[in-house]
Amino acid sequence: MNWSAIEAGWNDFKAPAHQQWSKLSEQQISDTLGKRETLSLRVQEAYALGKDETEQQISEWQAKQVEKQAPPAKS
Prior knowledge:
This protein is mainly α. It has helices at residues 3-8, 10-20, 26-31, 36-47, 51-64.
């Protein structure tokens, strides 16, 4: 899944992001507005990680996300 889809549907991805990075408050996750760079900075600060390690974690998390699909239409 590309990041623009995550950013566009951030409300659906906030909970999984909070599960991944539980040191961040729900408000901190929400305040990123799905912006990858902002999320990266928050994770770096909370976990005292370098930029490369943080990007690795975000990329791995991103790869695990599945696009949210609308329920099938009823016939």
